[in-house]
Amino acid sequence: MVLLPDFRVRQRDYLLEISRAMTAQLDLSEVLRLILRSSVAMLAGEVGLIALKEDHSASMRVRALIGAGPEHVGVFEPLLSAGSADETGDLYGPDFDEKLQRIARSLGQPLRQAVSLPMYLGEETVGVIYVFRTFTGAATRDDMRVLQSFADQAAIAVNNARLYHQVDQERKRLQSILEHSADGVMILDARRVILSFNRAMSRISGWTPEKAISQPYSAVIAWAGRPQGTDLGEAMQSGWPASHKTASSPNDALYVEGDLIRPDGTLIGVGITYAPLFDAEDRLLNVIASVRDISHFREAEKMKSTFISVVSHELKTPVALIKGYAGTLRREDANWDPTVVQRSLAVIEEEADRLTELIDNLLAASKLQAESMRIKYEDMSLLKTVQASVERFRTQTDKHKFVVEFPPDFPIVPGDSARLRQVIDNLISNAVKYSPNGGQILITGAFTPDEVRVSIQDEGVGIPQSEWSRIFERFYRIEDALSRKTQGTGLGLYLSRAVIEAHGGQIGVHSAPGKGSTFYFTLPRQRAYSL
Ligand code: ADP
After folding, report:
1. Domain CATH for 199
2. In 157, 356, 434, 487, which residue has its Cα 20 to 30 A from 2's Cα atom?
3. In a domain, 530, yes or no
């Protein structure tokens, strides 16, 4: 008989040990080594190995080896390569003896017999256990059955390890999705303590994961004012989430929107969706909060409402004036003096011009969003354009003194004269509008071999530095008493910048509140070709 005499006593111990190892840990190589050790001991073998099928191939790889050093792994190769077992699944194959002799010679051990135990997982063969002995002998059917149960255990261990690997892979995948998600994600336990905090969540909230984890969620979700919708704490007090089984919809998510106070005191607009996660017993396990930065969205909303109020205000004023004057002139009972008629018609004409300009600006601005501005180049004199514009404004104000200073050799430049006239008109009109107490408006020209520069300096209210770039944005107006009183749409500088940049130039401002502003633009002396 092949088995050791005390085998029957020991087989239980071995099985117990193996199953304990399998439940205690998931490290596959440990379990395999233990199974192999037991199998070799029970068969009184000298050498043993467990080989497992490689993932996407038919051949096997040695995963545990006893009785030979790791340098000998290659010796067993002929037993393990694809096709080494014949079609019937016989692991010995036709020329097995020859292979065995070669192995014995390579190892320098008098191996005379090999017992092989296939490892099955259902229908699939996942690996094989080989035990090599220095003597020959047959095992009883009973013994083989016990040995086969070792092989089965090994197959289960392999399966566990595979499943564990899959779960681990899945976990890593989710972790990476979570980490790189553009939305902030925060996982809470049932008591609303933060368990996990991704990168976007850090960016949005201003909290580092280290500081946030283990804090109650309300430390991070600190609302400035009352948010729209019911926040988590309040919702949970009134019974949210309904249990999984009784909930009308399994997606019983909660949405709330508002401004969060960050640790540095700044505010950020966010929308948060809270989703519950239940365990198998229908107990609340986690709440998953996904937090979206909606400040851009809110800015766009604000822009839209500014647009509507500005435009309606700007449209209403001239229309009301036109209607008023036209109505007065039409009165049949009145006989108007020709000068009154003239003055009234002049107002109507001016206001109609203003409407046209407003509509032109709106069209230009909306067109700009869709495509870049096209420039019709011609050789032009900026000085003449400035002089013409100054003449027009001179007639409209007597509080302001206009001074134009251009060097006599100021060059002709290539440019779109109609559009550049708009820019100059707009800058001079702003200089007048935003210096309500009057003062000097100085327009200077300068040039270098590469470019020309025109500056418009006023002595008006000035602009704080924080607004210098924003005033060039679409519909942006500084919110102060003067802007509310003066007409404007916040489109002038936006369009001016577009015109100047389409020429390849630059536009900007220097100013100090109360000390006036200097707007300037440059234009290249050579035509800019866009690529
Ligand atoms: P608006 O139609 O409001 O004048 P603009 O785009 O021309 O629009 O200007 C944007 C904002 O920049 C103005 O509302 C005003 O607050 C500010 N601004 C422009 N020019 C001046 C200036 N010369 N002095 C002070 N503030 C100015």
Report:
1. 3.30.450.20
2. 157
3. no
Per-residue model confidence (pLDDT) at position 1: 45
Q: 423-475 pLDDT, tens per residue? A: 999 999 999 999 999 999 999 999 999 999 999 999 999 999 999 999 999 88
> CB of 438 within 8 A of CB of 495?
no
271 and 328 part of one domain: no
What is the total count of domains within the chain?
4
Q: Residue 477 Cα, ligand 1 centroid: separation in angstroms?
A: 6
Q: Which of 370, 393, 426 is the last residue of a domain?
A: 370
Q: Which domain holds residue 225?
A: 184-293
Query: Tokens 């809470």 map to which residue?
Result: 188
- Do 269 and 357 belong to one domain? no
Is 79 touching ligand 1 by the criterion CB < 6 Å?
no
Which residue is associated with the tokens 């050791």?
4
pLDDT on residue 136: 83
Query: Cα-flanking dihedrals φ and ψ of residue 476, to 5°?
Result: -80, 130
Distance, in Å, from the CA atom of 321 to the CA atom of 329, rounded to the nearest integer, reads: 12
Quick one: pLDDT band at residue 86, thresholds 50, 70, 90? very low
Beta-carbon-side half-sphere exposure of residue 280 (alpha carbons within 13 Å):
0
Above pLDDT 70, what percent of the chain?
A: 92
Do the Cβ atoms of 355 and 323 come closer than 8 Å? no
What is the predicted pLDDT for the residue at 198? 94
| DSSP secondary structure code for residue 531 in this structure | -
At 222-252, the pLDDT tens digits run 999 999 999 999 999 988 888 766 555 555 7
Rounded to the nearest whole angstrom, what is the distance from the C-alpha of residue 397 to the centroid of ligand 1? Answer: 18
Same domain for 274 and 194?
yes
Residue with the smallest CA separation from ligand 1 atom 19 is 430
Is 324 inside any structural domain? yes
Site to probe by mutation for ligand 1, drawn from 459, 469, 477 as the one with most ligand atoms within 8 Å of Cβ, is 477
Q: How much distance in Å is there from the Cα of 488 to the middle of ligand 1?
A: 8
Among residues 228, 262, 293, the one where a domain terminates is 293
Q: What DSSP line would sit under 434-502, residue for residue?
A: T-TT-EEEEEEEEE-SSEEEEEEE--SS---GGGTTGGGSTT----SHHHHHS---S-HHHHHHHHHHH
What confidence score (pLDDT) does residue 295 get?
Answer: 87
Locate the ligand 1 atom nearest the alpha carbon of residue 495 and give its number.
6
493 CB near ligand 1 (under 6 Å) = yes
Cβ of residue 483 lying under 6 Å from some atom of ligand 1: yes
Ligand 1 centroid – CA 469 distance (Å): 11
- Residues 499-520, mean pLDDT to the nearest whole number: 94
Is residue 233 located within the same domain as residue 314? no
The whole-number average pLDDT for the span 156-173 is 87
CB of 478 within 6 A of ligand 1: the answer is yes
- CA angle, residues 413, 415, 416, in degrees to nearest 5: 150
Tokens of 315: 């449209």
